[in-house]
Amino acid sequence: MEQLQIDQMLEEKGYIDEAIDPSVKLVEEITRLKKEKNAVILSHFYVDGPLQDIADFVGDSLGLAQAAAETDADLIVFVGVHFMAETAKIINPNKKVILPDLKASCSLAESAPADKFAEFKTQYPDHKVITYVNATAALKTMSDIVCTSANAAKIVESFPKNEKLIFAPDKNLGNYINSITGRNMVLWDGACMVHEQYSVEKIVDLMEQYPDAEFIAHPECEKPVLLLAKHIGSTTALLNYVQKSKAQKFIVATESGILHQMTKACPDKTFIPAPSNDSTCACNDCSYMKLNSLQKLYVCLKHEQPEVTLPKDVIEKGQVPIKRMLEISK
Ligand code: 13P
Ligand code: SF4
User: Fold this and answer.
1) Nearest CA to ligand 1 atom 1
2) 20 to 30 A Cα–Cα from 35, which one of 2, 127, 193, 199?
3) Is 80 exceeded by the pLDDT of residue 85?
4) What's the DSSP call for residue 74?
C-alpha cells in the first residue's frame, strides 16, 4: 500500500483499512511482529478480552503510564485511547508510539478544549491546576500536575491545605476527591459518557435482588451512584478489591471490559454489570475503547502506523506535570 493512500485512510478513518488474508493467524502474527520489532503492547482494562490477553502489560491509566516509563522496547503499541498513547509519547519522546485507531478518543478529553480551558484558567490566576490524565496533551501543558483515578487523592493531598486548586476535566472525580479530602477545588464541567449513564433506581433494584452482592464503582460515576458503593476505585483498585473481598457476587459500575480480568482472576465469583438508564444501548461499553480490534492491531504493528506525534514544545511542557505525578506515585 502506498504511503499516500495510507495517509488518506488515516485522515478519513483513523486506521489503515487493509484487507487481511483470512488464513493469517492474527494472534501468532502479532506475537511474531512484536518480537521482530522489539515492540511492547500496553493494553487498558476496557479493551476487548483478546486485546488484553495479547498485551505485555494490561492495567489502569497509572499502571500503563508507569509501564511506558519503564519500557526498553523500541516501539510502544498502545491499545487504549488517544490520550493514553499521548501520555506514553510525552514520557518517551524518542520512541515511536502507535495506536491501532487514531479516532479512539475520550469524552472527558473532548469536554475540555485547550482554548476554552485557557480562558477558564484566567478567571483563577492564583490557582494551581491538577489535570486528570483523561485530557489532551495540550491541557496537560497548562497543568501543574497530572493525576489518575488511582492517585488523585494523594496528588491533591500533596498540596498544602490552603492551596487554591482547579481540577479538570472530570467534575465527578473532582467532586468525589473534594468530599474525601475536604478540599474545595474549582471543577471543570466535564464527564465521562459511560460512567454518567448508570441508573440509581436500577442499581438499587439489583441490590435488592442480590442482597449478598457488593456494589463497587469507578469514581467517574455521579455522586448518587457513588453513595451506594461499598468500594470506590480505579479499575486496578476494583480488580484488587474483588479478589480480596469475601463476597461472591459484585455489581460493577465501570466499563464492561474490566469484567474480563475480574472473571479471569476469580472464576468462581459472579460479576454483574451495573445497569444504565437506557436499556437499549451498550452504555457500559466505551465506544472509543471498543474501536480497537485484533485486526487493527495487526495492521498497525505491520505498518507501524498510525503513529502518535506531538510538537516538541508540547512534549517538553507536558513532561513536567506527568513526571511530577510519576515521582509522587512511586
Ligand atoms: P482507570 O485509570 O481507572 O483505568 O480509568 C481510565 C478511564 O478511562 C476510566 O474511564
Ligand atoms: Fe474516556 Fe469514559 Fe471511555 Fe474512559 S470510559 S476512555 S473516561 S469515554
Assistant:
1) 60
2) 2
3) yes
4) S
| pLDDT given for residue 284 in this prediction | 87
- The class (CATH top level) of 200-273 is alpha beta
Q: Top-level CATH class of 108-192?
A: alpha beta
* Phi then psi dihedrals of residue 273, to 5 deg: -65, 135
For ligand 2, pick from 44, 79, 99, 108 the residue to mutate: most ligand atoms within 8 Å of CB: 108
Whole-model pTM over 0.85: yes
Cell of 211: 442482597
Q: Which residues line ligand 2 (CB under 6 A)?
A: 81, 106-108, 134, 192-194, 220, 255, 286, 288-289
- Looking at residue 29, its pLDDT comes to 98
Q: Identify the residue whose C-alpha is closest to ligand 2 atom 3.
A: 286
CA–CA dist 85, 91 (Å, integer)? 10
Same fold, 3-102+289-309 and 108-192: yes
pLDDT of residue 282: 75
Place of cell 505491520: 302
| Domain 3-102+289-309: CATH architecture, name and number where available | 3-Layer(aba) Sandwich (3.40)
Going from N- to C-terminal start, the domains of the chain cover: 3-102+289-309, 108-192, 200-273
